[in-house]
């Protein structure tokens, strides 16, 4: 069973700047990808005979690397995972929109729901966690031990930074086996 874990980070000013840079790159990649995909949808609507295939998150990332990264050097100051996950989340948002389960994705604003996702070699210790390109981040509460999260999401709410990740947990079945159950037969 997967359980979610979220806690506040104890960050210094240098780390705050680095976290803000990661969130900014993720937001820029999202907004760039959203603008591009909206243009593709408009083109396909107005020119049915010259349709362009709707891009996957991998296509978007290839275009981002080819077109955007050379233009903006600050993309190289952060982990490559920040824009990759932003484009994955954008594609998932479009998929939900196409299934009519959610509204179309919207552009993100600076300072409102800033977040980004990282993966790679993540180490967890009792009161700190090491994430790629950022290093060790201290936490206010103890982290679950014996876990190796594959990815973490770092978000900012009310000028505080939080980290969240999923951990694998086995359900506690010992309580169920100790209780006695009554079987009821239902006849139709």
Automatic annotation (TrEMBL):
It holds the Pfam family HTH_OrfB_IS605. Residues 1-44 form the Transposase putative helix-turn-helix domain. InterPro entries: Transposase_put_HTH (IPR021027). This is Transposase. It comes from Hyella patelloides LEGE 07179.
